[in-house]
Amino acid sequence: MAEPRTGGQVHLRQEGAVAVITLDNPPVNSSTDAVRRGILAALGRIDVQRTTAVVLTGAGQHLMAGADLHELENQPTEPTLPQVTAALAGFPLPLIAVVKGHTLGGGLELALACDVRLATPTAMLGLPEVSVGVIPGAGGTQRLPRAVGLPKALEMIVSGKPIAAAEANRIGLVDELLTASEEGAALQAEILAYANRYRGGKRPLAERDVAPVEEATLQAQAQRLLARSRGLPAAAVAAEVVMSAAKSSFAEAVAKERGHFLALRGSEPARALRYLFFAEREPPFTPTQAVAPRSLERVSVIGAGTMGSGIALCVLQAGYTVDLLERSAAALEAGVKRIAQELEGDVERGRMTAERRDELLAKLRPTQEIQAVVGTDLVIEAIIEDLDIKRVLFADLAGLVGEDTLLATNTSYLDIDRIAECIANPARVLGLHFFSPAQRMALLEVVRCKTTSEQTLSTAIQFSRRLKKKAIVVANSWGFVGNRLYAAYRRQCEFMLEEGASPERIDAALEAYGFAMGPFKVADMSGLDIAWRMRQQTMATRHLRRYVGIPDLICEAGRLGRKTGKGYYRYSEDKRPVPDPEVAGIVARYRQEQGIEARTTSDEEIQQRAVLALINEALLLLDEGVCQRPADIDIALVHGYGFPRWRGGPLFIARQMGHERLLAALEWLAEVSGKGHERGDASLVGRRYSPFV
C-alpha cells in the first residue's frame, strides 16, 4: 500500500490504478475551509495518466455528515462547496463516492457530484438543510431530481428526512450496496475491487434530463409536504427550487439555488434554527466535580394510567427491563393493553418488526405488588397529583429498595422537597417530569431538589439520552419551567378572550405565527377539568391579580373538552374542533356582567402579547434561578409546547429585540395585563447566568 500524502484534513493515496481521497475531519468529517481546499488539492495531485478511477471516502464512520454550521455565521470563503462539487463533476476521471454513516447535506452533495455512489448497508443519506433554515446550496436541489426523479427529490429535500441505504439503492440514488458495514480491511478491499473493475466512464448527473411529472401532481405533493413542515420558511423555497429542475437548464437552476441559499443563511429563522441546533447539543448538566453516573438496567414505573404506561413504553423502547405497578387489576390491564397497542401500531406502520415487539413485551413485568420494586435501579412514580399520597408512597418505597436506588416523581406542580424530606438518603430523590404522550414528546424536565446529588442528576441525564429525550435540568419550583411558562401564555390568551377576541380567533392567530396548536384547542385536548381544580385551590388569593372567570363558566356548563365532546369548541365523531355559538354566548354574557365592552384585537396584537408573556415569564424564571441554562427555556417550549422551532424561542426573540425595544414591550405588556402582573428584568437577557442561585 502506498504511503498516504496529507493535504490538511484530506489525504490522498494511490492504490495501483486507483486514487483514494479520504476526508479526515473528526468527528463527522464536516465541510470546512480546510476540507474543501484539501479536496481540490488532492484532485490536482492525481496522476491522470496512471489512474483509471478515483475513490472519495471518509475516515471513520462517515463520508461527510454535512457542513460545519459555525461557518454559516460568517460570509462564505473560497473555495466554496459549489466550487468543489463542480471540480468533482468536471474531473476527467470517473469518481466513486463511498457513502457511509451519516452522509448528509454537503456530504450527499459531494456524492451526487461523483459519477458512482456505493453505500454501506447502514448508511443514511439526506439533504436536511431546511431543518437549519437554508436549502442545499451546492447543486443538491438539481442533481437529486436527476438521480431519483422529481417526486422523491421533492420529498427528501422539503421534509429534510434522510433515507436508508437500501431505499437509496432501490430508487437509484446509490448504484451498489457494499456487503461490509464496518470500517476495516474488508470494506477497503471491496471498494478497491469495485473501482478496479469499473468501466462505466464519466456519468455526471448534470447532463441527465429530468423525468417529466405533471405540474398539478407535483404542486399537490409540494402543498402536502409544506403543510407538514410547520411553517419552516426554507421549506417553501426548497420546493420552488427543486421544481425548477424541469424548467431550467442545470446552470440556470444551480445559480438560482445558490442565490436562495445565500439569502437564507443570514435570515432570522436560519439563525434561530442554528441557535437551537447548538443549544441542544450542549451538555444539559455539568457537575461541579467529576462524578460517575450510576448504571441503570431495571426501571420500575408506578401507575399504569395514560402517563405511567407512556413512560413505561418509552423506557422499554430504550432497552430497559420495566416493572409496571398498579393496584387496580383493571387499570393495570388497560395500561398493558395501551403499550401493546402502541407497539402493534409500530409494527403495522413498518417501524418495528414483530420480533422486536415481542422482545420488548417480554421485558415488561406487570404487577399489583409493590414488593416487586425490590432490586430495581430506578423507580418513577406516575400516580395521582396528591402530595400526601405521594409522600406515603415514597416512604414505602424507601423501605423496599436499596439505599442507592433512584426515586423519581413525575409530578407536574407539587413540591418535590416535601416528598424527599422524610426519605433516607434524599440525595437520590428527584423529579422526572415527562410530557404527554410520554412515548412521543421529546422534552424531559429533570428536577433538582435541595438534596439531589450531582451523581443522581448525572445518572438522570444519561438515562434521558438513552430514552432519546431532550433533557433540561430545573430547580424545584411551582410548575418547574414548562408548565409555568405555559400558564403565563394561557393566562394572557384568557385576558384577550375577556377583552373581545374569540377562542378560534386567538387559536388561528397563534397557529399562523407557527404554534403547532392554539391554546384553546390544547386546553380542550388536555381536558378543562384539571386546570379548573387547580384554579379552585387558589380562590383565597384570586383577588390579588386579574382573574378571568370565563374558563370556570365553560366548565360549569359541562364543557370539559374533547373527552366530553365540547369545551371551547364542539367536537363531532371525527374529533375536529368546530366553533360553538354556545361558547360565544357564555363569553358575551360574562363580558356584559363584568361591564367589559368587546374590542377588536388584531392577529399581530394576539401574537405579540402571547410571545411577550412567554418572554416576561422566562425572565422571571432566570431571575429566580430555576433554569440550568437560559437556552433551556427555549428548548422546553420548542420540544414540549409546540413553539415554532424556526423562531428560536422567547429568549432568542428577546435578544433580537435589543434592550430598549424589549424594555418598552415589557412595559406595554404590564399595562395591558393589569393587576398582579410581575414584570421581568429585561437586563437579564444579556447577563451571564449562574444556575440554581
Please provide a written account of the structure.
It is a single chain. The chain is of the alpha/beta class. It folds into three domains: 262 residues, Alpha-Beta Complex (2-enoyl-CoA Hydratase, Chain A, domain 1), CATH 3.90.226.10; 182 residues, 3-Layer(aba) Sandwich (Rossmann fold), CATH 3.40.50.720; 213 residues, Orthogonal Bundle (N-(1-d-carboxylethyl)-l-norvaline Dehydrogenase, domain 2). Helix content is 46%, strand content 12%. It has an eight-stranded mixed β-sheet with strand order 13-12-11-14-15-16-17-18, sandwiched between helices. Strands 1-2-3-4-5-7-10 form a seven-stranded mixed β-sheet. A three-stranded mixed β-sheet has the order 6-8-9. Helix 3 packs across helix 4 and helix 18 runs antiparallel to helix 24. The longest helix is centred in the C-terminal third of the chain and has 22 residues. The relative contact order is 0.06. It is found in: Peroxisome. Pathway: Lipid metabolism; fatty acid beta-oxidation. Monomer.
Low-confidence stretches: 1-7, 689-693
- Please identify, by name, the CATH architecture of the largest domain: Alpha-Beta Complex
In total, the number of domains comes to 3
User: In the CATH scheme, what's the topology name of the largest domain?
Assistant: 2-enoyl-CoA Hydratase, Chain A, domain 1
Structural class: alpha/beta
Kindly report the name of the CATH homologous superfamily of the largest domain: 2-enoyl-CoA Hydratase, Chain A, domain 1
Task: Identify the strand order in the major beta sheet.
Answer: 13-12-11-14-15-16-17-18
Helix content: 40-55%
First-to-last CA distance: 60 Å
Alpha plus pi helix count: 27
- Number of E strands: 20
Mean pLDDT: 93
